[in-house]
Prior knowledge:
The protein is of the alpha/beta class. It contains 13 helices and twelve strands. β11 and β12 form a beta hairpin. α5 (98-109) runs parallel beside α6 (124-132) and α5 crosses α9 (251-264). The radius of gyration is 20 Å and the shape is globular.
Amino acid sequence: MDFAARVERVEPSATVAVSNLASQLEADGVDVVDLSVGEPDFPTPEPIVEAGKDAMDAGHTGYTPSNGIPALRQAIADKLAADGLDYAPEEIVVTPGGKQSLYEIFQTLLDDGDEVVLLDPAWVSYEAMAKLAGANLSRVDLAQYDFQLEPGLDDLADAVDDDTELLVVNSPSNPTGAVFSDAALEGVRDLAVEHDVTVVSDEIYKEITYGTEATSLGTLDGMAERTITVNGFSKAYSMTGWRLGYYAASEELVEQSGKLHSHSVTCATNFVQHAGVTALEEVEAEIDEMAEAFEERRDFLIEAFAERGVEVPEPDGAFYMMLPVDEEDQAWCEEAIEEAHVAMVPGSAFGTPGYARISYAASLDRLEEAVDRLDDAGCL
């Protein structure tokens, strides 16, 4: 059987692969501390769950308008306005998960041979989506700057030119937890305007920060018309399995991407969209509680690793950190899961060898267990 070249260009998701291995070990009776998956370990807030149930009871189980129910698109527009972004409901597409939003954007904007610029380490699916669209990649290494963009702006300037079709910015970042400064984002703006580049601002972790706030790129002068803002409900609202995301862009792009949207997923799940309205309008304290818990876990890990002589760049958002390990990070992660029974994702999966990504979406007890196991196994 012959397979399409576009599919053979990409590898399976490294994060999912590690999670699958952890699940297999657990099925064999092994106690694995799984720090590989980017999924909050908190239940979906009760008001959202009740809203979903009520929507099903009310009969909201059929198709919706392809781009989303009006109430949700209005609620999203209101949320974005509170962040300083001016989008009309007609400029918003609701998708089954933020990943689908990104896929539609890449497929709509990119042709064979187009250039996409990524900031490494970058979430694993950006590369795959670019390759599926036939695009070429230019990558900017931020590891040398402790994952901060501002000191790497000269490197970004070397990577971006008039042939660049798309630049992807993810702040707070997966996998580093870095929150890019306003000065860094202004540098992105200057390059985007100079070279007429469209920028995807992936803000899925925007609500999870510690002592700082993440600026939306589209709020900067000159960026409203060239920024596509992506967000969703999986992380801040602990709704990973509900599959609900969205993107906001010009009506022109929405018109074109809507073709792909309607011919593929048709629409996001009806009752889930109604629950999304409740999430945006009624849930706030629960987000703050989760962020406080993540911050406490971050602080614990930073101190625990420092006590063992390992300095880890401190994240300011999301719930990830990059642990420095051997240059052969794939082998190191395999040893960690086989010998210490701690699952992490190798940094090379994100374009940055020599690190392992830790997701600290786990209890303090489990995080302490993970550090002790890694230490006892000689991994640290």
